[in-house]
Design goal:
This protein has a single domain, classed as 3-Layer(aba) Sandwich (Rossmann fold), CATH 3.40.50. Strands 3-2-1-4-5 form a 5-stranded parallel β-sheet, sandwiched between helices. The N and C termini lie far apart (38 Å). The chain has 8 helices and 5 strands; from the N terminus they run αβαβααβαβαβαα. The protein has 190 residues and is α/β, with parallel strands linked by helices. α5 packs across α6.
């Protein structure tokens, strides 16, 4: 009887996980993040193709007067990060060099940003987990997500490269959500 219960429990858990993955994948491709007409600051996290370039373009189009780039590796020069960026824009850009992962990006952003309206730029597949982390750290601001969608993700998502990226990000999203839930649960108990 215990063996049947264990098998049944595993099948239910697997079914829920698969349904969650499908919902997550569908959610990614129904997102329609639009840039607001004005924000106090643009924030972008390094790590994905086209993120920084998109954020600089939004700065150039004056969606906000300032840009913060979080997660710039300490060994990378400002010159290489801002290559091709006009000098007039460079003085409106700050680089954060203390973040090595999404959770640390959120912490670094919270330390730097004192704005009420944030235009947040990251990759489409990375947006749900990033928002989860960022909202834990920046509680007094309105966050306007702006998803960068690399061309390979815009096409058939079931392609192996896309599906594996979404699969990895879904599991990271679940892990982050569980970590945050446990942290909040423990803070209520202790």
């Amino acid at each position: 009887m215990f063996k049947s219960f264990t098998i049944y429990t595993c099948l239910v858990a697997l079914t829920l996980w698969v349904l969650g993955f499908l919902a997550f994948a569908f959610y990614l491709f129904t997102l329609s993040y639009k840039a607001p007409t004005q924000a106090d600051v643009i924030v972008v996290w390094t790590g994905g193709a086209e993120r920084v370039a998109t954020a600089v373009e939004l700065l150039e189009k004056q969606y906000a007067p300032h840009l913060f780039i979080s997660g710039v590796n300490a060994g990378v020069s400002a010159e290489s990060v801002l290559k091709g960026v006009p000098a007039a824009l460079r003085q409106k850009i700050d680089l954060g060099r203390n973040a090595e992962n999404t959770q640390k990006n959120a912490e670094e952003t919270a330390e730097w940003v004192k704005a009420k309206k944030i235009l947040f730029v990251t990759s489409l597949y990375h947006m749900p987990r990033s928002l989860l982390e960022l909202k834990q750290q920046v509680k007094d601001a309105t966050i306007f997500p702006y998803a960068v969608s690399p061309k390979r993700v815009d096409t058939a998502w079931i392609h192996t490269a896309n599906a594996s990226q979404i699969f990895i990000e879904y599991n990271k999203f679940l892990a982050a959500g569980l970590r945050i839930y446990i942290k909040e649960l423990l803070s209520c108990v202790f």
